[in-house]
């Protein structure tokens, strides 16, 4: 008996009690799982987001609209950044106080060229409080996925509370499956067999999230 015959025989045994003609979507599937764990106000969602982002070793800042350019300029200066990738739709005022070279997000930019850039500043599509996750969908203020994966320092601005949802089930209806989604929970990291954590493997080593309060 070949390996193929063995596999097919196992499949037939597993399907022996399935009525003929029944399809995968025919049996009813209960979907009574919780969409949100607990009850929180919008402000409590923002606090939970900040807590979980910090748990994942992201650096969290809070500010109002008037203080955003000063804060971004300070963060870039503290980082020693001399160049920043700028998505085409990023609000110009966000970098008004930063003395850096602005590198446009263009399709022709190679990974090697982006690796030579110090930082990237973007907005986001939304953020998930329960998981401490930032979601990017390549919107005008976020740019192509590549620019947030190659530079070693990412500053991401989240408008709160409007862009914060409680849970993943609440996030999915607000996201388009046709767009390239990037889900970020803290700076890029991995661990080897000895559980030694190494950051910056698959993306930025440093993630700074600014929670921008509504004006």
From TrEMBL:
<feature type="domain" description="LUD">
    <location>
        <begin position="108"/>
        <end position="212"/>
    </location>
</feature>
<dbReference type="InterPro" id="IPR003741">
    <property type="entry name" value="LUD_dom"/>
</dbReference>
<dbReference type="Pfam" id="PF02589">
    <property type="entry name" value="LUD_dom"/>
</dbReference>
<dbReference type="InterPro" id="IPR037171">
    <property type="entry name" value="NagB/RpiA_transferase-like"/>
</dbReference>
<dbReference type="InterPro" id="IPR024185">
    <property type="entry name" value="FTHF_cligase-like_sf"/>
</dbReference>
<protein>
    <recommendedName>
        <fullName>LUD domain-containing protein</fullName>
    </recommendedName>
</protein>
